[in-house]
Structures are given as C-alpha cells and as structure tokens.
Give the backbone structure.
Amino acid sequence: MEQGMKVVFLYGGSARFAGTSTSEWDGPALDGVHKFILFLAQDSEQPRQTLALQELKMYGFCDIELEEGRPISPESLNDPHMSPFRQHYEGAFAEGSSLVWYP
C-alpha cells in the first residue's frame, strides 16, 4: 500500500451508549445497548482494534464488544444492497470515521 493511502475498515459489535461523546451527534438513548458498524479510515491494511475502541469511546460508547475489523472493498458499494452504506464509507474518508448503530 502506498504511503498516505487510506483503507476503510469495518468493525462490528455491540456496546452501551454512555452519552459522553467528544462531539455532538444524534446518538441513541442513554444506557441502551446497541449493535453497530464502525467505518474507520486507517493507514494500515491490518485491523487496528485499539484504534477502533478509542473511536467508539469518542462516540460515547462503553462496555464494548468488538469484532475483528475487515477492510471494505470500494467496489462492493456498487451493489444496490450496499448503497445505504456508501455515505458512511465516504464519511470515514472525510472525517476519519462514521458510525451506524442499530436499536
């Protein structure tokens, strides 16, 4: 991989929303446990679990159960079933990460 080139990894899991986010966002109800997918732009082709955990804590989550990260292929976003995730992929490149959470 070229230096400075970013790869977006997906990290799934579940966590409790504690509400202590470092930035404002439309998060879930306090103390609820939610499944999530974290889209994380990173400069490594290897999963970076520690970085993903730090990012989830910045979103305000605790008691995190994190699955191993895997890279997402940009071509996979051309599939019509994947179109809802395209904005999160692009958001990860623009902001460093993007989070999808489920009730």
The chain is about 20% helix and 35% strand.
